[in-house]
Amino acid sequence: MKILLAEDDDALAGELARALRAEGFALDRARDGIDAGHLGETETYDAVVLDLGLPGRDGVSVLQDWRAAGRTMPVLVLTARDGWSDKVTGFKAGADDYLVKPFRVEELVMRLRALVRRAQAHGAPRIACGPLVYDPGLGSFEHHGLPLRLTGLEWRVLGCLILRKEAVVPRTELIERVYDGDAEVDSNSVEVIITRLRRKIAPATIETVRGLGYRLMSGSAA
Predict the structure, then answer these.
(1) 81 half-sphere exposure, CB direction, 13 A CA radius
(2) Per-residue pLDDT tens for 129-141?
(3) CB atoms closer than 10 angstroms to residue 134
């Protein structure tokens, strides 16, 4: 899962980035409202953490423009303003949740995961694809009823595939959704991860669509 973190406080952003990566998220960072607006308009994110007090352009106007353009990703707003009118302004602009600084990082992670779950669970608490089952709320996988042990990158790739099960996910989209924006990605890295996943969930379940990408199938699996 990929998150946009729009926060100008370097210390707070660093703390949040470490916590989110530890939870298996990839993320891009925006330090001002101009970059945040551009990234939210041009990239695909599973959710956004948006500080309202960004330099260059305030978060409310950024959020309003995203919603006006039809961008529907969940947005968790951060702000130092705790007045009710400020909260109303944030929600009217299109925020899905609201946290007032200071806050516990654990609470932000919990709320963010809940937003992603509601947005991507497709109305079901768990998503099944053959013997593979994904729980978006817990961020866990089971295979034939047993917990599936995955590395962080394996978890991100398999999460992208199961949310689009039986549809082709382009290789370029996997790279964008799985790796941090500033990461150096080897040309064969996704194929290496796919190969490792096939060993864990049976080769027949992940199909390579030559020239396009990969597709998670619910057909016969060992």
Answers:
(1) 15
(2) 999 998 876 778 9
(3) 23
